[in-house]
Amino acid sequence: MASRIEEYAFISDLRTGALISREGSIDWLCLPRFDSESVFGALVGTKDHGRWLLEPPHGDQLTSGPAVVDRRYRPSTFILETRWRTESGEVLVTEFMPIGGSGNFLIRRVQGLHGQVLMRQELELRFGYGKIVPWVRRIHDDDGEALLAVAGPQAVMLRADALPQAGPDYSHVGEFMVEAGQTIDLQLHAFSSHNVPPAAIDVDVALQATSTYWTSWSSNYIPQGIYDKEVERSLLVLRALTHEKTGGIVAAPTTSLPEQFGGERNWDYRYCWLRDAALTLEAMMTHGFQQEALYWRNWLLRAVAGDPHDLQIMYGMAGERELNERILSHLPGYEGSVPVRVGNGAVSQYQGDVVGEVMVALAKLRNRGVHEDHFSWPLQRNMLHFVEDNLQRKDHGIWEMRGEKRDFTHSRVMMWAAMNCGVRAVEEHGLEGPAQRWAEIRDGLRAEILALGFNREINSFTQTYGSTEVDASLLVLPQVGFLAYDDERILGTVSRLEHDLLDRTGLLLRYRTDACLDGLDPGEHPFLACSFWLVEQYARTDRVPEAKMLMDRLIGFGNDLGLLSEEYDTTGNRMAGNYPQAFSHLALIRAADALHRATRMAGTATG
To answer: If DSSP codes are grouped into helix, strand and coil, which group holds residue 550?
Structure first.
């Protein structure tokens, strides 16, 4: 059985990532990319669907009662250190994925700190999301003995000072003793099966290079407030979810971690949503990572190039368009939550807000002095043409409703934002475009939204035109400049959101699933990004004590490594949804920035 979501650590090589439980089990790893098939899939299945356990055995005569006494990332990195203590001694397990080079490496280093500790490993390699048992054999080469697993185009090699032996049910198990001062390395390397097996790497060199990469990258972050540690970790998460070669940013490294335990709200997030990636770009730009933002812009240009009518809301990591959703019926799901899905049916949805998010992010990049080239501005004009052609079209909304399409107020506002960015690009930056026509469309949208998206009887903007239901996405309206944060209509909307969508613990739901036709059975947990949006709104409207209180609660929902999931189950006091979630971390950054700005302004006013 998989661990609770918050018990997992995450490591990345900027191509894929692994989830490692506190008990030392790698329960999720897709190779060679985030969106590839899993080699370790126990997270949404059982150990028979693939895992790699490394821990002191329980109940052994030398190691009775092993316990993790400390777990942390090396500062400003994704190098995981776990300290195990037993009755006979103590060891440090260091786990990381080297960045760069050919193929994917995963290193597990065991160092004896004092005494002696018996370590046990259990290796179940399963390709094809746990469905394919590879052919495993022992080989000998210039680097010594290794285990080589092959199935079709994939191959995985394990090199270790102490290789496990063949065990029951196509597993490999083994034990080795670690003395104080001794170091034992285990190297897992994935590569194409038609290639020559790779040579072993120098773990010391790889560890130093990986540490240098992460610390050098994060050194661009300039501390600015009381949430520095959380902001830095969130920026690191966003970087770790970015493919080093393509620039694509995945929403999360996992699929089908449930939004409702035992329910059907289980989705594959291992793809690049234009919306999420654009918001990630904004967060990185704000903190000095302009090169990463430019890199993502280049990914965007490649992904959406072509007929603007073919624009999608999401793409694969290299810009792939075919992301058809299917169900893996052989997997029992995380804690029985089925179905387990790969691909995402929302790829075919029309979501009217997406171009707006992209245009807002690119406008901020432009305002920071990055020049448009012969490709980037024409592509943005194409996207605005797409908005024009779909002005009267209802959509599925930001939350990817699987029910009937509607006029979502948030979507209409983001269409307004897209046109506003186009007009300002012409007027303020001298770019070519039909600014007058865009301005007419923009102004028409504004009048329409104020007339149909705001309900005077409840003094609030509504989720859809003609409705009385509200939606947390309405908190984005002031973020894109549609109205001021302290506009009476925004304040009225906030009051309504607090009344209708705050749960009993003070967290904000996305919308009322029991009152909204989203095409699914009702019920989900608070979506963390929405509550971070509320922190930002409070901070911008002189409600700083409330903002600070809510922010501290939300920070507390992260695990001991500073990672956040998509949602939080306040009844079970546990994480829910895919993990770690880019949307949660980028919203944390925005909220922290807003609080920093508010407290600084308050301090200036007091002084």
So the answer is: helix
Interhelix angle 528-540/582-606, rounded to 10 degrees, is 20
Pairwise CA distance, residues 520 & 298, whole Å:
36
CATH of the domain at 185: 2.70.98.40
**CA of residue 491 relative to chain centroid, distance:** 30
Q: From 468, 496, 477, 488, select the one nearest 536 (Cα to Cα).
A: 477
C-alpha dihedral over 274, 280, 286, 287, to 10 degrees? Answer: -150
Can you count the helices (H) and strands (E) in the chain? 14, 23
Cα angle for residues 184, 26, 11 (degrees, 5° grid)? 85
Three-state helix/strand/coil letters over 435-458: HHHHHHHHHHHHHHHHHHCEECCC
State the Cα–Cα distance between residues 468 and 493, nearest whole angstrom: 11
Q: Judge whether 57 lies within some domain.
A: yes
DSSP class of 221: -
d(CA 27, CA 122): 12
- The SS3 call for residue 374 is coil
CA quadruple 454, 455, 458, 464: dihedral, nearest 10: -80
482: closest CA among 529, 450, 508, 456? 450
Residue 99 lies in a domain: yes
Chain mean position to CA 379: 26
The answer to whether the Cα torsion of 593, 596, 600, 603 is positive or negative is positive
Q: Which residue has the tokens 């989203």?
A: 518
Name residues whose C-beta falls within 8 Å of residue 330's C-beta, 6 or more positions apart in sequence. 129, 130, 131
Query: Does a structural domain hold residue 148?
Result: yes
Cis, bond preceding 258 (omega within 30 deg of 0)? no
Structure tokens at 140: 């000998």
pLDDT at 607 over 50: no
Inside any domain, residue 273: no
pLDDT tens digits, residue range 163-179?
Answer: 999 999 999 999 999 99
Element (H, E) at 294: helix 290-304
Domain count within the chain: 1
Under 8 Å between Cβ of 240 and 213: no
The strand pair at 25-30 and 326-327 is best described as: unpaired
Q: Has residue 474 got a pLDDT over 90?
A: yes
Nearest to 19 by CA among 572, 559, 528, 524: 559
**pLDDT tens digits for 531-579?**
999 999 999 999 999 999 999 999 999 999 999 999 999 999 999 999 9
> What does pLDDT average to over the chain?
93
User: Which residue type is seen at 238?
Assistant: L
Does residue 153 have a cis peptide bond before it, meaning omega lies within 30 degrees of 0?
A: no
- Tokens 């009518």, located at residue: 309
Residue 111 belongs to what domain range? Answer: 5-198
Question: Which tokens in the block code for residue 602?
Answer: 């308050």
Q: Angle, to 10 degrees, between the axis of helix 528-540 and the axis of helix 544-556?
A: 160
Phi, psi of 453 (to 5 degrees): -95, -10
CA distance 567 to 571: 12
